[in-house]
Design goal:
With 660 residues, the chain is an alpha+beta fold. The protein has 11 helices and 34 strands. Strands 16, 17, 18, 19 and 20 form a 5-stranded antiparallel sheet that branches. The chain has a 4-stranded antiparallel sheet with strand order 1-23-22-21, with no helix packed on it. It starts with 6 loop residues before the first helix and ends with a strand.
Length: 660
C-alpha cells in the first residue's frame, strides 16, 4: 500500500524534525528514519550527509559497470561508501529507482561490494526499472555468479533476469493500446489513483493539497468524467472516532443502486499504518453517513484489508487482505454480500491467482467471468503488473500478463473500464513519476481481422479452407479455423508483432500473407484487402503466366517480367512440397530448330531468376517447346497471318509435376 501514501505526506513529517536538524549529525537522523522504514526522510538526511562529504556532483554517473575502483586504506567500509549504499537503499525503499541507481553504482566503483554484497543485485534491479535491460541482465548474471549468500537473493536475480527478457520482447512489440496521463483537474501535486465511474461521474483517490485541512492527505474526490469543473471532496458525517485529519480514505466503489459506497480507510500510529474496509450509506439528504467498518469476515483483527470492488450485480465484493488463510503478503479474496451489503463469508481465490508476493486492486467482470488484478509474483515488466485470469465454475485459469503499454517497469494498478466506451479504460500508474501514482486513460486499438476466401478464377466463396493466424517470429499458430459455406474468417489482432495468415486447401496453392500493422488500409492480396483468393491447380495441367515479356529475338527478361515472376516465387515459397516445370512457347515464325532453342533460353532465363530469388534449383526446371504446342492457329483459314493467334502461342506456363 505504499503507493497510497504520497511522498508529500512524508515531507510534512520531516518538517518538525528538520527544525531540530544538526549539521553535525545528519547520519544519525537518517539511520533513525531508515530503521523506522521512513525511506523518504532517510534519503533526505543521507543526502545531507552526502553533501557534507562532497559526494553530490553535477556530473551524472553512467549506468555501465566496470572501471577503476578504490578501497578504504584500512580495509573498513568508508563513511562515503556507507552513505552511498544507504542512499541507494532509501531511494529504492520508496521505489525511486532513478535516484537509487547511481548510488549503488558508486558502491561498486568504490570496490566495497564485499562489504555490501547485495549492491550489485539492487543495482541490476534499478537498471531494469529504468529500462536498461541488457545491462541489467549482465549485472544480475554477474551477481548470481559471484554471490554465495542466501539463495533467496539469487532467486530474486533470476526472476529479474526473466523480467528483463520479457520486458525487452514487450517493448519491441507492444500491445495495440494507447496510454496517456489524464491532464487538467485530474493531475495534482500528490498522488491521484483508483478511479471508479458512476453515472457520468468519476470518483478517485487523491493526496492533493486540501485547503480546508492545510495539508496533503488522501481523500476521496468526485469530478465529472468529461473533466469539466473542479474535483470536490466526498464528505462523510463524522463518526467521532478520531480527528478527521488522522484518517485517510481511498479506493472508492459503489453498489449498483449507488446507495452504498465502500472504500479503504486507514490511519498511522508511529510507523505503523492500520487499514480496513468501510462502507457508508447515502442519506435522504444526499449526504453520506458515518463510515461503518465491515465485519470480521473481511476485517480480521490485527490484519489489513484494502481495495474493495463490488461486482455489477451487487452480490460479491472482491478485496485484498493479509488475513490468515493467504499465500503471503497481500492476497485477493472474495466475499458474498447479503441484501444489506454486509459480507457473509470470505474466500481466498487460491494459489493460481495469489502468490507468496503481493496481489492488489482486483476488478471482476461478472458477464465475462474475467478478473483483472495487479501482482508482483509473476513474470512481468517490474513492480505491480496487470494480470488477467478467467473463472470457470470457481476454477481460475493461469494468469496472463497483460503486456506493454498496459504495464510498465513501475507500478500499474486499478484497472476500470469506461462504461460509455467499450474501447476505453483507465489505470493508475507511477510510470511517469518518481513517487506517486497518476491517473491514465487508455484506448484499446486491438481489432478483429476478418474477410472472405474465394476461388481466384470463379470468384465464388470457398468453403473448407484452413485459415491459420500465425506468429511469424516464433512460427507458433495462434488460432486456426476451417471456413464454412460463408467462407469467412476472423481473428483478433492484439499486438504489433508481425503475423501471417496461412490459407490451405487441397487442390489449391497454399497462400501466406502478412497481416498489416494496425491502422493501415488493406489492399489486394498482400492482405491490404481482407478478401483473399486461392488459385486452384491440377497436377500436370499447365497454368498460364501472363505478361512475361522479352525483346524481339532475345531471351533477356524485361523488368516488368520479373515483377510477374515474383508471383510464382511466392507460390513456390508458400508451397515447399511442389515441384514445377516452367515452359516457354513460340509461334511458328522461324524454323523449328530456331524456335526450340529460343524457347529453351527464355524458359531458362525465367528459371534462373526464380532460383536467384531463393527457390531451390531441384524444385523447378526449364523446358522450351518452341512452336510444337500451339493453343491457337498461327494463320487464318484463308492462309493469311493470324496476329491474335500468334500472340496466344507466344506464352510462358508453369505446371505442377510433383507434390511431395
Amino acid at each position: 500500500m505504499k503507493k497510497l501514501l504520497t511522498i508529500l505526506l512524508l515531507i510534512a513529517a520531516i518538517a518538525p524534525v528538520h527544525a531540530q536538524y544538526s549539521k553535525d549529525n545528519p547520519r544519525a537522523l537518517a539511520d533513525k528514519a531508515f530503521n523506522n522504514k521512513d525511506y523518504y526522510e532517510a534519503a533526505y538526511y543521507y543526502r545531507k550527509a552526502a553533501e557534507g562529504m562532497s559526494l553530490i556532483t553535477q556530473q551524472s554517473i553512467p549506468y555501465s559497470g566496470g572501471g577503476k575502483t578504490a578501497k578504504a586504506k584500512d580495509g573498513k567500509v568508508s563513511d562515503k561508501t556507507y552513505i552511498a549504499y544507504q542512499l541507494g537503499e532509501s531511494y529504492r525503499g520508496y521505489e525511486n529507482y532513478l535516484e537509487a541507481e547511481p548510488w549503488y553504482y558508486r558502491v561498486l566503483q568504490e570496490g566495497d561490494e564485499a562489504k555490501f554484497p547485495l549492491s550489485r543485485l539492487w543495482y541490476g534491479v534499478c537498471l531494469r526499472a529504468n529500462q536498461h535491460f541488457d545491462e541489467a541482465i549482465k549485472q544480475l548474471t554477474d551477481f548470481n555468479t559471484s554471490y554465495k549468500g542466501d539463495a533467496k537473493y539469487r532467486a530474486i536475480a533470476d526472476k529479474e533476469i526473466t523480467n528483463c527478457r520479457f520486458a525487452k520482447e514487450q517493448y519491441k512489440y507492444p500491445l495495440l493500446i494507447d496510454v496517456a496521463k489524464r491532464k487538467g483537474p485530474w493531475f495534482s501535486d500528490g498522488s491521484d489513483y483508483a478511479m471508479y465511474l458512476k453515472d457520468g461521474m468519476s470518483y478517485f483517490t487523491s493526496s492533493r493539497f486540501a485547503k480546508d485541512e492545510k495539508t496533503h492527505v488522501n481523500r476521496l474526490y468526485m469530478l465529472r468524467n468529461d473533466g469539466s469543473g473542479q474535483p470536490q471532496q466526498v464528505q462523510f458525517k463524522d463518526d467521532g472516532s478520531m480527528k478527521s485529519k488522522e484518517l485517510e480514505y481511498g479506493t472508492p466503489v459503489f453498489t449498483p443502486d449507488g446507495q452504498h459506497i465502500y472504500f479503504t480507510r486507514w490511519f498511522k500510529v508511529g510507523s505503523k499504518s492500520t487499514y480496513a474496509i468501510y462502507t457508508s450509506r447515502k442519506g435522504s439528504d444526499g449526504v453520506w453517513g458515518a463510515p461503518e467498518k465491515l465485519n470480521a469476515n473481511v476485517n480480521a483483527d490485527g490484519f489489513n484489508s484494502i481495495q474493495p470492488y463490488i461486482t455489477t450485480d451487487g452480490k460479491q465484493m472482491y478485496f485484498v487482505s493479509t488475513k490468515p488463510g493467504g499465500y503471503g503478503g497481500d492476497d485477493i479474496w472474495v466475499a458474498d454480500l447479503s441484501g444489506d451489503g454486509s459480507p457473509v463469508n470470505s474466500k481466498n481465490l487460491g494459489s493460481t491467482v495469489n502468490t507468496s508476493q503481493n496481489e492488489q486492486a482486483p476488478y471482476y467482470d461478472v458477464q465475462n467471468k474475467r478478473l483483472v488484478y495487479s501482482s508482483k509474483g509473476f513474470t512481468g515488466l517490474g513492480g505491480f503488473d496487470f494480470f488477467e485470469t478467467m473463472n470457470d465454475n470457481g476454477s481460475w485459469s493461469t494468469p496472463v500478463n497483460m503486456g506493454y503499454p498496459m504495464n510498465s517497469a513501475k507500478d500499474d494498478l486499478y484497472y476500470v473500464p469506461d462504461p460509455a466506451n467499450a474501447n476505453k479504460f483507465y489505470i493508475s500508474s507511477d510510470r511517469e513519476s518518481d513517487c506517486c501514482l497518476n491517473l491514465f486513460e487508455a484506448y484499446d486499438k486491438r481489432h478483429t481481422l476478418s474477410g472472405l476466401v474465394v476461388d481466384c478464377d470463379t470468384r465464388k466463396a470457398l468453403a473448407g479452407v484452413k485459415v491459420s493466424f500465425v506468429d511469424s517470429l516464433s512460427k507458433q499458430t495462434i488460432k486456426s479455423l476451417v471456413t464454412d459455406k460463408t467462407a469467412r474468417y476472423s481473428f483478433n489482432v492484439k499486438t504489433s508483432r508481425p503475423y501471417n495468415l496461412v490459407l490451405e486447401k487441397e487442390g489449391y496453392f497454399t497462400k501466406v500473407l502478412p497481416v498489416p500493422a494496425a491502422g493501415r488500409e488493406m489492399q489486394g492480396d498482400t492482405l491490404f484487402n481482407p478478401d483473399i483468393c486461392l488459385q486452384a491447380f491440377k497436377k500436370d495441367k499447365p497454368i498460364l503466366i501472363n505478361n512475361v515479356l522479352y525483346d524481339y529475338d532475345k531471351a533477356t527478361l524485361r523488368p516488368e517480367s520479373k515483377t510477374v515472376l515474383n508471383e510464382l516465387v511466392t507460390i513456390m515459397k508458400d508451397n515447399p512440397k511442389i515441384k514445377v516445370e516452367l515452359a516457354a512457347h513460340t509461334d511458328s515464325k522461324g524454323s523449328d530448330k530456331y524456335n526450340m532453342a529460343l524457347s529453351q533460353r527464355r524458359a531458362q532465363a525465367c528459371v534462373d531468376y526464380i532460383i536467384s530469388m531463393g527457390v531451390a534449383e531441384d524444385r523447378i526446371y526449364a523446358k522450351g517447346y518452341g512452336e510444337r504446342r500451339p493453343i491457337a492457329p498461327n494463320t487464318l483459314p484463308n492462309g493469311k497471318d493470324n496476329p491474335a493467334g500468334r500472340q496466344l502461342n507466344r506464352r510462358t506456363e508453369f505446371t505442377v509435376i510433383k507434390v511431395e
